[in-house]
Amino acid sequence: MKHYIFLIDVSTSMFNKISKVIKSLHNFIKNVDNSNYITLCTFNNNFNYIIKCKQLKEININNIDLQLFNTFGCTLLYDSYMFIVKDFMNYNIDTELHCLTDGEDNMSVTSKEKVEYVLDNIKKEKNWNIIFYNPNNIDIKIKNIKNVSYDVNNIENIFNSLSI
């Protein structure tokens, strides 16, 4: 049993991409064992939970639609990572954290170095698998976790290769 956490950028720049991200999420949910858990959260100027640690069999995939992903504002990336770690660090379940953005943080109080340190610790202490998806047209990486560059024109397949 696993807990899949998806942290999705819904800043203004994601406006033309978010429907493809939702499509990829739907494909992932359809193909994973429904006894697993999912958390779906978004960030722009704020951090928001859409689904918080629910078993997939409790989720109606049709309710995960464009209306839940209101794109606007800036990119609160680093603070969002911190919210996730704080909320789930005491859960004793195999966890995969997948973060998708199309740009750099421009709003967080937390520094990139602090996030790198915290993510490295949670990875070591709780054996989290953490993947950061960033577009291949900009060079943003987070140390000590898996960084995956993606083609913004092929974003609808972004979650197809997860370890299900």
Structural summary, described in words:
- With 164 residues, the chain is an alpha/beta fold.
- It has a single domain (2-102, 121-157), classed as Rossmann fold (3-Layer(aba) Sandwich).
- 25% of the residues lie in helices and 26% in strands.
- Strands 3-2-1-4-5-6 form a six-stranded mixed sheet, covered by helices on one side.
- Strand 1 (2-9), helix 1 (18-31) and strand 2 form a beta-alpha-beta unit.
- The longest helix has 15 residues, at 112-126.
- The protein is globular.
- It starts with a strand and ends in a 14-residue tail after the last strand.
Write a concise synopsis of the structure shown.
The chain is of the alpha/beta class and 164 residues long. It is built from three helices and six strands; from the N terminus they run βαββαβαββ. Helix content is 25%, strand content 26%.
**Coarse shape:** globular
Q: By helix and strand content, what is the structural category?
A: alpha/beta
> Secondary-structure element sequence?
EHEEHEHEE
Which stretches are poorly predicted, pLDDT < 50 over at least 5 residues?
none
Number of strands: 6
CATH architecture: 3-Layer(aba) Sandwich
What level of helicity do the residues show?
25-40%
Q: What is the C-level CATH assignment? A: Alpha Beta
User: Would you tell me the overall average pLDDT?
Assistant: 94
What's the gyration radius in Å?
15 Å
Q: What's the name of the CATH homologous superfamily?
A: von Willebrand factor, type A domain
Query: How many individual helices?
Result: 3
Biggest sheet: strands side by side, in what order?
3-2-1-4-5-6
Task: Estimate what percentage of residues fall within beta strands.
Answer: 25-35%
Domain tally? 1
